[in-house]
Specification:
- This protein has a single domain, classed as Aldolase class I (TIM Barrel, Alpha-Beta Barrel).
- The chain is 44% helix and 15% strand.
- It has twelve helices and eight strands.
- Strands 1-2-3-4-5-6-7-8 form an eight-stranded parallel beta barrel, surrounded by six helices.
- Strand 3, helix 3 and strand 4 form a beta-alpha-beta unit.
- The two termini are 18 Å apart.
- The structure holds 1,3-dihydroxyacetonephosphate (13P).
Length: 250
C-alpha cells in the first residue's frame, strides 16, 4: 500500500507570523492521522515553519528551487540552501512557474536532479491545459512531460518520486476533475513510468491529484486506485478546512 500524501501549496500567501499561527492551529487537528502532511510555504516562511512544526507530524516543503548550487542568480534559492535549514520537500515545475516564469521540461528536469543531489524530495507537477484537452492532446502532452522531466533519473530516484497530476483547467477554478478523469490522468502517468522504469518502480511512485481539491471532494478523489493524495491550493490556506482534507479517511 502506498502512503497517502496530502500537501498544501500556499503559493504567494501567508507571511511568517501567519505561518506560525497556521501551523500552531493545525497541529492538534492532524496529530492522529497516518497520512503524510506537507505544507509548501513561501521561502520567507520556511525557517519559521520548520521551527514551529518541530516535533509534529507536519513536514515542510518549498515551492521552487534553482538547479545550480550557488552563483550569480539574483533572487534565487538553491537546493543546497533549502537542505541546510532542513526543508524536506520541494515542488518542482508547477504550472504557474511554467506559465509565468517560462519553466520548460528541460529546466524542470535539471531541478529534479538537483533536488535529489541535495537530498530533497521533489513533488513534480505535470498536467495539460484546457486547449490541449479539448484538442484531444492531453495524453500526448502528459506523456511528453513525464518522459522529459524524468529523463536520466535512476530507477531508485523515480520510485521515490511524488508526482502531482494537476490539469491546468482545474487549478483555482473551483471545478475539480471528476474522480474518473483524475484517476485516468494518474494512471496514465504510472503506465508511462512503467514503460521506461518497470512496473515495480511505477507501483511505488506516489501520484497526487491537484486542482480545486476541497473537503467535499477529497475522499472520493483520494480513494481512486491510482491517486495517492492531493496537492491542495486554496483549501490549504485555512487550518480547519485543510485538516478536514488531511483527515478525509476519518
Ligand atoms: P487550487 O487547489 O487552488 O485549485 O490549486 C491547486 C494547485 O495549483 C496546487 O498546486
Amino acid at each position: 500500500m502506498r502512503q497517502k500524501v496530502i500537501a498544501g501549496n500556499w503559493k504567494m500567501n501567508m507571511h511568517p507570523g501567519e505561518a506560525i499561527e497556521f501551523i500552531t492551529n493545525l497541529t492538534p487537528l492532524v496529530k492522529d492521522t497516518k497520512n503524510e502532511i506537507i505544507l509548501c510555504v513561501p521561502y520567507i516562511d520556511l525557517f519559521y515553519s520548520i521551527l514551529t512544526a518541530q516535533g509534529t507530524n507536519i513536514k515542510i516543503g518549498a515551492q521552487n528551487m534553482h538547479y545550480e548550487e550557488s552563483g550569480a542568480y539574483t533572487g534565487e534559492i538553491s537546493g543546497k540552501m533549502l537542505k541546510a535549514i532542513n526543508v524536506e520537500y520541494v515542488i518542482i515545475g508547477h504550472s504557474e512557474r511554467r506559465k509565468y516564469f517560462n519553466e520548460t521540461d528541460e529546466i524542470v528536469n535539471k531541478k529534479v536532479k538537483s533536488a535529489f543531489k541535495y537530498g530533497l524530495k521533489p513533488i513534480v507537477c505535470v498536467g495539460e491545459t484546457l486547449n490541449q484537452r479539448e484538442e484531444g492532446r492531453a495524453e500526448e502532452v502528459i506523456k511528453k512531460q513525464v518522459d522529459d522531466v524524468l529523463e536520466g533519473l535512476t530507477n531508485e530516484q523515480v520510485g521515490s518520486l511524488v508526482i502531482a497530476y494537476e490539469p491546468i483547467w482545474a487549478i483555482g477554478t473551483g471545478k475539480a476533475a471528476t474522480s474518473e478523469d483524475a484517476n485516468n490522468g494518474a494512471k496514465q502517468i504510472r503506465d508511462e513510468i512503467s514503460k521506461t522504469y518497470g512496473q515495480e518502480t511505477a507501483s511505488r511512485v506516489i501520484i497526487l491529484y491537484g486542482g480545486s481539491v476541497n473537503e467535499t471532494n477529497a475522499k472520493e478523489l483520494f480513494e481512486m486506485s491510482d491517486i495517492d493524495g492531493g496537492l491542495v491550493g486554496k483549501a490549504s490556506l485555512n487550518p480547519e478546512e485543510f485538516s478536514k482534507i488531511t483527515n478525509y479517511d476519518k
